[in-house]
Write a structure and sequence with these properties.
Strands 2, 4, 5, 6, 9, 10 and 11 form a seven-stranded mixed beta sheet that branches. A four-stranded antiparallel beta sheet has the order 1-3-8-7, with no helix packed on it. It has 127 residues and is mainly beta. The protein has strands at residues 4-7, 10-12, 18-24, 34-39, 46-51, 58-60, 68-73, 78-83, 92-98, 116-117, 121-125. The protein starts with a strand and ends with a strand. The radius of gyration is 14 Å and the shape is globular.
């Protein structure tokens, strides 16, 4: 019954930067395989990036490679999505998700794998 909380969304101009964060609502610092997704109304949820439980295995979608970077601060129990050179097509609701399994060697971009989710945070890229 772990709930995640995303923050950092908002309005940003094209070409700008924004950093999203995600942590457990309880404040518990637990290292889990974690992923970021985004969704535009009427479209399928799109996988963006994931990291395994030991922070040595990652994946990033081609659509955001070179612009988005996922990272984790284990001490703070927080994962981040650093976004740069934002474009209008990046406008979406962004979600973080975590795997309930304690050890995951290779992270997955399949939505069905993840048990814990946040409520989403809106990112709008507009002049």
């Amino acid at each position: 019954q772990v709930q995640l909380v995303e923050s950092g969304g908002g309005l940003v101009q094209p070409g700008g930067s924004l950093t999203l964060s995600c942590r457990e609502a309880s404040g518990t610092s637990t290292v889990r395989a974690t992923a970021w997704f985004r969704q535009v109304p009427g479209q399928e949820r799109e996988a963006l990036s994931c990291i395994n439980s030991s922070d040595d295995g990652t994946f990033i979608a081609d659509s955001v490679k070179g612009r988005f970077t996922m990272s984790r601060d284990s001490a703070k129990g927080t994962v981040y999505l650093q976004m740069t050179n934002l474009k209008a097509e990046d406008t979406a609701v962004y979600y973080c998700a975590a795997d309930s399994r304690p050890v995951v060697y290779s992270c997955s971009m399949r939505v069905g794998i993840y048990d814990y989710w946040g409520q989403g945070t809106q990112v709008t890229v507009s002049s």
